[in-house]
Specification:
- The chain is an alpha/beta fold.
- Helices cover about 40% and strands about 15% of the residues.
- The protein is globular, with a radius of gyration of 22 Å.
- The N and C termini lie far apart (about 55 Å).
Length: about 400
Amino acid sequence: MAPDPLESIQQALALVGEQRRRQLRPFLPGPGATLLTGEAGRPQGTLLDLASNDYLGLSAHPALKAAARAAIQSEGVGSGGSRLVSGTRPSHISLEAGLAQWLGRERVLLFPSGFQANLAGVLALADRHSEVIADRLIHHSLLVGVQASGARLRRFRHNDLTDLRRLLESRARNEPQRRRLVVSESLFSMEGTSPDLAGIASACQEFGALLLLDEAHALGLLGHGGRGLAWGVAGVSLVSGTFGKAFGAGGAFLAADGPVGEWLLQSSGAFRYTTALAPPLAAAAAAALELLQADPGQAATLLLRARRWREGLVAAGWRRPPGEGPVLPLHVGEDALALNLQRHLEQAGLLAVAIRPPTVPPGTARLRLVLRRDLPHGSLERLLQALAAWPHAPIP
């Protein structure tokens, strides 16, 4: 009798503990997050949303909705083909040109998702003859790209420039002809931290390495006019960004100069063999870009709020969430404790999701608080009151 081909999968599932099992829960957006339940999707309750990446609250902005509707009328809902066949639309060309000018890059290429863009970025700059030196906490999509490339992977301690320089120097000395790619992020989505990008870029130039920077969570928020940390920094070979966060839309892009941009167009299977980004999403992202350009300082209010929230948490006895941006992780340690805190906050009308391994290292489970410009007045006070009522709080 032939073995059951699903047996190994069933065995693997059995090893996933109850504290790490994931589930899908549907929500309706709005001033809060309306949790739906049951097959009919009946509203169960509205929670203050402290989990969304819609940092600037643009996903419901009238300008983005109007741009998406206009694109549907003129270009259709879907593109119907890949960019190199028949899928390129005026909305794609317009968005790519606008982003290239805004970011000071020669070429921008759009992708349907950030995961896909990161995969394409790594594969464009690394192969089985290369070596990738990556921050220990880079996003899973970047790690998948390294695995797919066949490159040798080495990791440096999170945001530790000294450790990166040590690796670059030793590797350049031992194998000077091998191509090297350094990979990092400008705002780590589960840590809330940012690197010394100028130092990283300088080290890459000194030791002859390429540099790929994932700006997904920084664009619209950090850097000059929200352009991200790579803007104006020499030595950043390729920038990855998304429209599903501060831009309030969907899709992603890679931005590059010179031969890197042309190489992407000519060689990237992730670009060539996928249906192009839906025109309404491209048009909405272009509308968001216009809003950012019209008010380049709008992120300042959010960053000031993030500082006030950090100060409030420290005053309440909690460890200060690292970084300066709108991602504030509350570290609690064990999976069960993080889930317990998530449920406690939901009972208080607050949505903050427990982040557990493998997304974060074992023993570092946390609640990921995310701030937005459109959070109502008094949100911090509501959170602190709920945290004070948790039997295990605070965790210094």
